[in-house]
Amino acid sequence: MRQRIPVSTIMSKHLIALNRSDDLEYAEMLFKRHKIRHIPVVSGEIIVGILSYTDLLRISFADAVDESESEVDTLVYNMFTIDQVMAKNVVTVNSQTSIKEVAKILATREFHALPVVDDGILVGMVTTTDLINYLIDQY
Questions:
Q1: Contact 48, 41 (CB under 8 A)
Q2: Quick one: which of 48, 88, 114, 119 has the most CB atoms within 10 Å?
Q3: Which positions, given as ranges, span the membrane (predicted)?
Q4: Residue (of 79, 77, 98, 103) closest to 24 by Cα position
């Protein structure tokens, strides 16, 4: 495998993002419509947090519903704001960070997505799925 390939070669550049003022029901709709699991929360082009679908499941009391149930109890969403649920201390990388370094971060941390930020501006997202697809392409 080649060394020092930048994460910009595998990151998603067409981002779906949320604002702090959006509601959690809207966030759930975005997760389902776009079949994604992580959404950056932005103020303009600056990342202020990240919301994962797991965060929504955690607050929805999903463990109290039948496992075959696919709908999250949206009534609970009215009790929380995106600001309350999102991860705020977001680890980021820049677009020139190597894929190897990104893989190390994701392998040792308890999250599966990294926002890519250049000069303070969100320019992409890289996920464990992006890394797996990259590895598949290598063989």
A1: yes
A2: 114
A3: none
A4: 77
Question: How does pLDDT run across 28-63, given as a tens digit for each residue?
Answer: 999 999 999 999 999 988 999 999 999 988 887 644
CATH 3.30.2350.10 fits 7-138, yes or no: no
The amino acid occupying position 57 is L
Q: Give dist(CA 4, CA 93) in Å, integer.
A: 14
Nearest Cα neighbor of 117 from 11, 10, 3 is 11
Strand 18-19, strand 38-43: pairing: parallel
**All structural domains of the chain with their residue ranges:** 7-138
pLDDT tens by residue, 114-124: 999 999 999 99
C-alpha span between 50 and 68 (Å, rounded):
27
Give one DSSP letter per residue of 82-138, joined into a string: HHHHSB-S---B-TTSBHHHHHHHHHHSS-SEEEEEETTEEEEEEEHHHHHHHHHHH
Measured distance CA(47)–CA(69) in Å, rounded: 33
